[in-house]
């Protein structure tokens, strides 16, 4: 192809948002008339305009077109030298296109925008706004961020405090605002502040925000606390001034009812009769009646299965002086006597259990739980006492070594009058675990209700005997010799 081209000037400079023009001169050095078409190519093509877009030249003649460059003021207009080119295609010989090249330098510019997100934050001890810094220029920006307010009421934690932002990018700066003084009571207060984006040689860009500091406690709560404290102090002073004198009349009422303060009957042994029988017998008639000779303590001693020393103790007054001076053990009888003194006409039952490895529990009364439910430790002895029911009787049910998987009643019924302890089972170290025990009051006239917590199970359903029906007692516990009772609840 016979074509001569020239760019005037070959290198040019333009500001983003402005424009500049370069002249392209060309001469047809061939011997035929030809038409040439022009097309800008390269990264600057979107911002380049060619006028005219085609030119017809005779042989030996010269023509020119103008290239106008207008880069926008955006980060896409990369600062620095940018090569450009123009494709010239002759109509007669399209395959012989030529591409003259030039260089256009785009000047740098900076534009930074900052925004607080959110502009208003609330808190009692701190606020956490974010500062978004956008680089809208065509060159990298390096800036630092600092905070300030009137009166130096806030402290600032800024992360990061220095940022470098590429053209067209944004950086997020996390800020933690902390008030220098806490508002304990009262309404919220506004703390205006500003964050400054500083660049070298440029006026800082300030972004204003507001921190609303709330009170630690609302005003109404402070008033309520003050009134409550004043009332509490007043009540204490009135109590100290007019302290009531309380005197228990339990001892006098017990003496008037003819009930003596007997020491506890020792726990019975777990020795089974030589020929144990699984057959259940009815409780002895008149469980609450005095035994021949009028000694109620002998009935309590029957729960000890013939322990002579326990019988002497139950008779009251046969103990040594040393035992009399010691504080009496709080047995079921001790607890039920206290209830009888407070409610002479009511029906009450108190009880406690002996758990292997733990000893006697505290006395519980009228449906309270005695024992350790879910503890895995079996009960080996039970102590009961009643008031207002004409006495009680009970009998222990233990695993039967002679019959695998079954239980038996190894001893007779233990019975006693109102206010006297009845013991079943044993407190010895290797005593067998109790599968359960039979319980009767009023000599079988009832009623008595019970529930028990069985090992690896839960509380059984509430069961009551029916006065005048059957043998006149209720059974507390399980019939599975591999299980035992861990806790009980009784009512009359």
Descriptive notes:
The chain crosses the membrane at residues 220-242. Residues 260-332 are annotated as: Disordered. Residues 281-304 have a biased composition (Low complexity). Residues 320-329 have a biased composition (Basic and acidic residues). Keywords: Membrane, Transmembrane, Transmembrane helix. The protein is 12% helix and 38% strand. The model is unreliable at 253-278 and 286-324 (pLDDT under 50). Helix 2 (250-256) crosses helix 6 (332-342) and helix 3 (296-302) runs antiparallel to helix 4. It has three domains: 3-106, Immunoglobulin-like; 112-213, Immunoglobulin-like, CATH 2.60.40; 283-491, no CATH class. The longest helix is centred in the middle third of the chain and has 23 residues, at 219-241. A five-stranded mixed β-sheet has the order 2-9-8-4-6, with no helix packed on it. The protein has 492 residues and is mostly beta strands. Strand 17 and strand 18 (205-213) form a beta hairpin.
């Amino acid at each position: 192809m016979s074509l001569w081209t020239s760019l005037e000037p070959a290198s040019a400079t333009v500001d983003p948002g402005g424009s500049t023009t370069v002249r392209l001169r060309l001469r047809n050095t061939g011997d035929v008339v030809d038409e040439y078409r022009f097309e800008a190519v390269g990264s600057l093509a979107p911002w380049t305009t060619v006028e005219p877009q085609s030119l017809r030249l005779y042989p030996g003649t010269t023509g020119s077109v103008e290239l106008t460059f207008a880069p926008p003021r955006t980060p896409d207009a990369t600062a620095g030298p940018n090569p450009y080119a123009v494709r010239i295609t002759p109509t007669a010989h399209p395959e012989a296109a030529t591409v003259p090249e030039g260089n256009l330098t785009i000047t740098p510019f900076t534009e930074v925008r900052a925004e607080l997100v959110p502009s208003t934050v609330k808190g009692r001890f701190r606020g956490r706004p974010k500062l978004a810094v956008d680089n809208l220029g065509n060159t990298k920006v390096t800036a630092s961020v600092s905070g300030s307010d009137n009166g130096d009421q806030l402290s600032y934690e800024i992360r990061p405090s220095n940022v470098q932002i590429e053209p067209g990018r944004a950086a997020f700066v996390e800020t933690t605002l902390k008030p220098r003084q806490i508002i304990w009571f009262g309404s919220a207060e506004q703390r205006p502040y500003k964050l400054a984006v500083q660049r070298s040689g440029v006026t800082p860009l300030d972004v204003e925000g507001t921190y609303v500091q709330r009170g630690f406690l609302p005003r109404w709560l402070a008033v309520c606390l003050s009134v409550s404290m004043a009332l509490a102090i007043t009540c204490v002073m009135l109590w100290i001034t007019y302290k009531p004198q309380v005197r228990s009349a339990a001892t006098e009422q017990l003496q008037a009812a003819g009930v003596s303060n007997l020491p506890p009957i020792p726990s019975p042994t777990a020795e089974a009769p030589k020929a144990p029988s699984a057959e259940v017998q009815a409780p002895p008639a008149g469980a609450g009646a005095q035994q021949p000779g009028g000694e109620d303590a002998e009935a309590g001693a029957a729960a000890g299965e013939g322990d002579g020393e326990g019988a002497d103790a139950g008779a009251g007054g046969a103990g040594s002086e040393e035992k009399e001076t010691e504080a009496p053990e709080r047995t079921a009888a001790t607890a039920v006597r206290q209830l009888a003194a407070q409610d002479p006409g009511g029906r009450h039952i108190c009880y406690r259990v002996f758990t292997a490895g733990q000893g006697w529990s505290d006395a519980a009364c009228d449906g309270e739980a005695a024992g350790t439910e879910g503890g895995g430790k079996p009960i080996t002895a039970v102590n009961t006492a009643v008031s207002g029911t004409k006495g009680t009787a009970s009998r222990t049910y233990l695993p039967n070594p002679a019959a695998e998987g079954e239980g038996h009643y190894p001893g007779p019924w233990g019975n006693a009058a109102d206010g006297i302890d009845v013991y079943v089972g044993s407190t010895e170290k290797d005593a067998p675990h109790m599968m359960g025990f039979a319980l009767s009051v009023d000599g079988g006239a009832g009623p008595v209700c019970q529930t028990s917590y069985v090992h690896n199970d839960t509380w059984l359903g509430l069961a009551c005997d029916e006065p005048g029906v059957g043998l006149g007692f209720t059974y507390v516990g399980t019939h599975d010799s591999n299980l035992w009772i861990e806790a009980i609840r009784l009512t009359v």
